[in-house]
Amino acid sequence: MIAVVVVTPAALPVARRITAALPEARLHGLAGRVEGAEEVFSDAKAHIAALFKAGTPVIGVCAAGILIRAVGPVLVDKQAEPPVLAVAPDGSSVVPLLGGHHGANELSRRLAAALESHAAITTAGDLKLGVALDEPPPGWHVANPEAAKPVAAAFLAGEPVRLEVEAGEAGWLKHLPFAEEAEPAVRITDHQVTADEAELLLNPPVLALGVGCERDCPPEDLARLVRDTLESEALAPGAIACVASIDLKMDEGAVHALAASLGVPARFFTAAELNQQAPRLKNPSDIVLKETGCPGVSEGAALAAAGPDSELVVPKVKNKRATVAIARAPQGIDPAQVGRARGKLFVVGIGPGTAAMRTPEASAAIAASSDLVGYGLYLDLLGEATAGKARHQSNLGAEADRARMALDLAGQGKVVSLVCSGDAGIYALATLVFELIERESKVEWLRTDVQVIPGVSALQAAAARAGAPVNHDFCTISLSDLLTPWETIEKRLKAAAEADFVVCFYNPVSQRRRDQLARARDILLTGRPAETPVILARQLGRPEESVRVVSLGELTPDHADMLTLVMVGSSESRRLRLGGATRVYTPRGYAKKLT
């Protein structure tokens, strides 16, 4: 996550352009001055310092001095500091203040291109060499970052520097004036080696780590086998481009834990794809063929990921529960071009509508998604968060179709957000997703990583707007009989009336259903007075928002529609005139302790 910090409304247009250009960015705005911020703060200096200490890259669309004063007191470790960038409020310049060789320079260039402005790079190596030696291309790894400084210093001083390429290719360094003989050196290798003091070791992404394992293999068993294999072969973990396996293992926790520990993606192949590698296997197995449909998982996956010109540098090694093999690609491996990723489906609750009521976790899930699926209105409420993403929308009432579409897209290896209003698990689509997976049992769905992301529910938003009506026991009841028989709803209403719960009605009225709310009112009146306050909260978090308070005795179907949440107080709920507005609260018994 990248924090885009804005303290004045004038900087907001540029901040919006930044968040549109950087899917991983979140808008942080000063309370009362910046509209639509996903994170709100009251003290800019303290907020920026907290982000910096948490390791969050910060882009301040503000004067550089604000950022300098905020992070100055908390500067500790140059090697660990996150990028801090100052962007002129008019977008005319981008200045990396800190973390130039930890992503700030590259991020500045990206922003400058998006804003059609200038990146004010000040680090000497970048300016004179045109490259940061300790910031190699994606997938590369710097084995000894401390050696980057003396090697860069030698270049800057005009001293000779030697280049040794033992694996992969070094096209990104070809413009530098390397010498055939020199003491300082840049060594590109996929082996674990002991470097000289002035020898920079770079690991290119040339190794594909193929793995196989039993179902529910303990992650440590697989990790130990990989660790021991790399050590015995003196291969560098930083040269691993991806972890590869058969698609049967797409939902295997040990495989994903291994990939995460190595900081590389996991990629998967079908048995048919692995069978194409059969002539190149060193250890084909009839037992594996019978179990998986291909004669070798770890060797086949390693070779498939490394490409047709690759070689198997470590044939299959095994322990009781797992197998490992390693293949080397002559040029390098781009994981995005091989195999399939495991699909991921976020079932996201985006809250009532406004970005201010959207949780950071929900915003992060949407930003991480390539595809968004939802009712058109809900996708529209996301505003600029949908920029650059494929939208798949359908009409209200097509919930099952939307859930199937989201599962199918995730089953193809995509990262998908199924967007729900309010909370995904409260009268939304989370349950439907799991029900469809269980009922239809499609293989690609069962292998998908499904995560439910909570949101602020309508009842929480309505309660907050009105005061504190659900501070004691409460329940929610949907008055729609499309999925639940009215007889069942009526039983629940009678139980709620007898128990004196605060009751939150979802789906109170529609064009077809005009009498359920009145019938529910009459049932609740058997257990609480007619003066009981009723909160009518409509279009919460949207420009058309309205919150009214009426009495239970006067409640009619004309007071509500499908965009209204109706909250009926208990017999203990109270009205309070406060600051010119009516507030509702339900005592919980604290007053008894205070007397």
From TrEMBL:
Pfam families assigned: CbiG_C, CbiG_N, TP_methylase
Tetrapyrrole methylase domain segment(s): 344-555
Limits of the CobE/GbiG C-terminal domain: 207-327
Highest taxon of source: Bacteria
Cobalamin synthesis G N-terminal domain: residues covered: 47-126
Keyword Cytoplasm included in the entry's annotation: no
Database matches in InterPro entries: 4pyrrol_Mease, 4pyrrol_Methylase_sf, 4pyrrole_Mease_sub1, 4pyrrole_Mease_sub2, CbiG_N, Cbl_synth_CobJ/CibH_dom, CobE/GbiG_C, CobE/GbiG_C_sf
Entry GO MF terms: precorrin-3B C17-methyltransferase activity
Keywords: Cobalamin biosynthesis, Methyltransferase, S-adenosyl-L-methionine, Transferase
EC number: 2.1.1.131
Gene3D superfamilies: 3.40.50.11220, Cobalt-precorrin-4 Transmethylase, Domain 1, CobE/GbiG C-terminal domain, Methyltransferase, Cobalt-precorrin-4 Transmethylase, Domain 2
Pathways involved: Cofactor biosynthesis; adenosylcobalamin biosynthesis
GO terms for biological process, alphabetical: cobalamin biosynthetic process; methylation
Full protein name: Precorrin-3B C(17)-methyltransferase
Organism: Magnetospirillum aberrantis SpK
Lineage of producing organism: Bacteria, Pseudomonadati, Pseudomonadota, Alphaproteobacteria, Rhodospirillales
